[in-house]
Amino acid sequence: MSNNQTNSNSSLAAQQLTSLLRGFGSRSILHQQAIVHSLGISPNDFISIDLLNELGPLTAGELAEHTGLSTGTITALIDRLEKIGYARREKDPNDRRRVIIVPTYEDKEEIQKAYMPLDSAMNALAQEYSEKELENINHFLEKAVLVLDEQLQNK
Fold first, then answer.
1. What is the tally of helices (H) and strands (E) in the chain?
2. 41-105 maps to which CATH number?
3. Which of 7, 12, 66, 87 is the most buried (most CB within 10 A)?
């Protein structure tokens, strides 16, 4: 196969991948909306607890930066999350002057119940791939998350 054919196929494969990722993103949003509805919380609250779970404890300012919400909005959001037991404020062990927000919702039965069907289905899907293939998929997705983070910073 010539280089031109390889580049053409690559380009088609890359276009298909981009299209599939957009579709995956849309369905992820729809899935999140269904979970938000079932839990009875706001989308911003849900996104914030998901970010805390992914990134680990953050300060209110860091959470505001990641979500694009104002610090005043974040303060009220954290108050709501504490009230329902999804997060708590703690002194930063590295700097006692700072307060960090720690996610505490993973052990909640309603969270586990909401995510169990998708987690099970995704684990079953992963079983169709070799360890090496999963490593490649994980590597790609890690980079894709970084691309999305960069795009969000440019908005």
1. 6, 2
2. 1.10.10.10
3. 87
| Local mean pLDDT, 10-residue blocks, the chain (155 residues) | 53 92 94 92 92 92 92 94 93 89 86 91 98 97 93 81
Structure tokens at 153: 């910073």
Helix or strand (DSSP H, E) at 15: helix 3-39
Distance CA 53, CA 103 (A): 6
First and final C-alpha spacing in the chain: 41
Nearest to 69 by CA among 147, 150, 148, 152: 152
The DSSP code sequence of 72-115 is HHHHHHHHHHHHTTSEEEEEETTEEEEEEEEE--TT-HHHHHHH
The two structure tokens encoding residue 139: 């590597």
